[in-house]
Amino acid sequence: MARKAMSTPDQGGAATGSRLRAPRFGFVRGRARAEDGQALVEAAISLPIVAAFVFTLIEMCLAFYSYCLISEAAREGTRYAIVHGATCQTASNASCTASSTSVNSYVTHLAYPNLGGGTMTAATTFLDGNENAGSRVQVKVTYIFPINLPFVPRNSISMASTSTMYIIQ
User: Fold this and answer.
1) Is 136 helix (H, G, I), strand (E, B) or coil?
2) What does the longest C-alpha to C-alpha distance in the chain come to?
3) Mean of the per-residue pLDDT values for the chain?
4) Where are the domains of the chain?
């Protein structure tokens, strides 16, 4: 047999004494006050970790982009050298032969955006000792990529890419 809460009606007809209240979906006052600021503490702990991962990912993407940049620069340098060999002439029969210095200058002055902020150097070598058609030319591009991460000591990564082709003119 279930017991009912006894209440006595007062003047307004409302029950007094022990009132039964509907539960507020698990909200308990004392417990809620003890957990105030929990989200703030969790955010304060996790936000630096998430930010470190994001910045590390960005830095890795910049390093990969920089390697692709120097790889393309090496290919463009060898392409420039193979079409400007010893027999290269302009429309007015002037010589347009490329030397190691001109190829290096061409590679370092390519208009690729240097998002990594590093320094690029090029070295051109004619492997067969001449710039005649059928000889090989090699362009090696070296890039010093600076690592810019918070709380990590300043350091850099040296990257290099080499391209070799045969001179066609």
Assistant:
1) strand
2) 118
3) 84
4) 38-166
**Tokens of residue 146, six digits:** 């600076």
pTM over 0.85: no
For the segment 32-66, what is each residue's pLDDT rounded down to a tens digit?
A: 566 778 889 999 999 999 999 999 999 999 999 99
Question: Is 155 in a helix, a strand, or coil?
Answer: strand
Q: Which of 99, 93, 157, 92 is nearest to 123 (CA)?
A: 99
Rounded Cα distance between 50 and 31, Å, is 29
Angle at 168 between CA 99 and CA 132, to 5 degrees: 50
Q: H-helix or E-strand containing 143?
A: strand 136-147
Enter the tokens of residue 116.
């990594």
118-155 per-position pLDDT tens digit: 999 999 999 998 888 899 999 999 999 999 887 788 89
Closest CA to 110 of 75, 73, 146: 73
Query: At 11, which amino acid appears?
Result: Q
Structure tokens at 20: 């039964």
Q: How far apart are CA 72 and CA 70, in angstroms?
A: 5
